[in-house]
Amino acid sequence: MSTPVPQFDPVIHAPARLQIASILSAVNEAEFSFVRDAVKVSDSVLSKHLSQLEDVGYIRLRKAALGGRQRTWLSLTREGRRAFVAHVKALEQLVQAADRIAAE
Amino acid sequence: MTDALSASQALEEARAARVQVAARLDCPAHMHALVALLMAVMVASQSLPEPLNLFAIAPSLCALVLLVAYQRRRFGFFVNGYRRGRTRWVAISLLLFVEAVLFGSIWLKESWRLALVPLAGGVVVFPVTLFASYRWQAAYKADLAQAAG
Question: What are the tens digits of pLDDT across the range B30-73?
Fold first, then answer.
């Protein structure tokens, strides 16, 4: 994957969605309840955020059995990973620019 | 300045979320030992005469599949060992080492009739895999702690 150009992404920027993308960028797949507990939101709130990320093609949802129960597994798509990295780079540039101005 | 502050907070939240994942991935010692044992058995079993050596690999491979399923259930996520970052170097180095020992010992067994060489190879593979398993975990945590993205 080539290095994404820094680009602010309003879909990812919302705190909960940024955390979701950040968690998914660290793993191949994560189970719904793990992400819900990590982000500290309810099932319905997480579902809403996931729908928004899924609508723009940033995440993929997969149903699979685990321990005899049907679970939902989440993963970042290639596009989602690229958008997340580009967004983080844009944030870092913003912070660096502010640091430079403060130092002058 | 407010934008920069909120950007800084967003980066910190993203980093904190990844650190949470890293904190969760704390394999107990017996899991590291089990991985090392499975790799060692796969190599050592080549000391057995054919076709027993081939049959001996099957339980180890099945155990590896079960281990991955157990990891998913225990942690709630799955991480590919060959993910980019420092972890990839640890995983590839281990793979090359185990393959070298495996095929080297099979060659010595076939060419020089040294049937116990794979067994000795397995004994060597165990501590190396154990060390690599701990190194991989440390590399993963370091990768996640270092950067937000």
Answer: 999 999 999 999 999 999 988 888 888 888 889 988 988 888 88
**A27 and B79: CB-CB below 8 Å?**
yes
Buried b (16+ CB within 10 A) or exposed e, B112-143: eeeeebbbbbbebbbebbbebbebbbebbbeb
Amino acid A103: pLDDT? 81
> Which residues in A lie closer than 8 A to residue B80 (C-beta atoms)?
28
Q: Which domains does chain A have, with CATH numbers?
A: 10-103 (1.10.10.10)
Contacts of B149 in chain A (CB under 8 A): 22, 25, 84-85, 87-89, 92
Structural domain boundaries in chain B: 2-146
**Cα(B43)–Cα(B38) distance, integer angstroms:** 9
What's the predicted TM-score (pTM) here? 0.85
What does R_g of chain A's alpha carbons equal in angstroms?
A: 16
Q: Which residues of A touch B3 (CB under 8 A)?
A: 94, 98
pLDDT digits (tens, 9 = 90+) for A5-31: 778 899 998 999 999 999 999 999 999
In this complex, do A31 and B148 lie within 8 Å of one another by their Cβ atoms? no
